[in-house]
Amino acid sequence: MANSPSGDSMLDRLVRILDSFDAQNPTLTVNSLAHRADVPQATAYRLVDDLVAHGLLARDADRQVRLGVRLWELANRSAPTFDLRRAALPFMEDVNQLVGHNTQLALLHEDEVLVIERLSRPGAVVNQANVAGRMPVHRTSMGLALLAFSPAATLEGFLERHGETMLTTHPQLRRELAEIRRNGYATLDGFIDTESTGAAVPILDSRGHALAVLAVVVPRDAGILPAAVMALRTAARGISRALGA
Fold first, then answer.
1. Of the candidates 100, 134, 108, 135, which has an alpha carbon nearest to the alpha carbon of residue 217?
2. Which Pfam families does the protein's record reference (predicted)?
3. How many Å apart are CA 72 and CA 42, to the nearest integer?
4. Which CATH architecture has domain 10-75?
């Protein structure tokens, strides 16, 4: 039900306020929040006060606002990713210890790669992925592996919406996806960081479709990629079994 002159509901405004925070902006002033959420300043101050009172937002000592601990608590009680993360973590730890570099778990959500878990180690290569952060499909091995093992309808729908963007960096996209399906994994060199290589293996359901993807980011030309891919494939099969796939 709309309750503002612009026609948006109070829930719409609350969601836009919460959605204003990202990896580059973990804290914001109320004025910045109002601008990013397209909410009048007076309304933003009132809504922020209410959200802080309920623990969904928190104020720092300098009066900047960040997402509150209670929001994290609520999200983790029954998030659909809970079982996936719980099943994957022991296998991720094994891969992380063996490879010695960043290991991450992600899925395809709203046409982007959504990272839901990440393990790192001292001295690991630079990695742009963050937990609860999003990455473009066409620039990551995770995205290509998820796309290659998506159901046909999901793949065609994605290409209809984003085919032009994909083809700018992957002109032989369908051939590339077919090769990923044959090999069972995807690799991508230097698309985000020039000194790193990403490798990703799908975690498959009983129909052979990707539930999620397990990936590592390793130094480019370090010679450990074959061992990393083997470890990922073993771990991905273990996670599938743990999930009953």
1. 100
2. HTH_IclR (PF09339), IclR_C (PF01614)
3. 26
4. Orthogonal Bundle (1.10)
CATH code, residues 80-242 = 3.30.450.40
Are residues 162 and 137 in contact, defined by beta-carbon separation less than 8 angstroms? yes
Please choose, from the candidates 113, 118, 119, the residue with its C-alpha nearest in 3D space to the C-alpha of residue 131: 118
Structure tokens at 99: 């490879």
d(CA 131, CA 141) in angstroms, rounded, equals: 17
Q: In this structure, are residues 216 and 230 in contact, taking their beta carbons and an 8 Å threshold?
A: no
- For residue 118, CA distances in Å to 103, 115, 139 come to 6, 7, 18
Q: Report strand pairing: 112-119 vs 102-109.
A: antiparallel
Question: Domain extents for the chain?
Answer: 10-75, 80-242
Q: Is 1 within 8 Å of 9 (Cβ atoms)?
A: yes
Per-residue pLDDT of the chain (245 residues; tens, 9 = 90+): 345 556 689 999 999 999 999 888 999 999 999 999 999 999 999 999 999 999 999 999 899 999 999 988 887 776 678 899 999 999 999 999 999 999 999 999 999 999 999 999 888 888 888 888 899 999 999 999 999 999 999 999 999 999 999 999 999 999 999 999 999 999 999 777 888 999 999 999 999 999 999 999 999 987 899 999 999 999 999 999 999 87
- Would strands 65-67 and 186-189 be described as parallel, antiparallel, or unpaired? unpaired
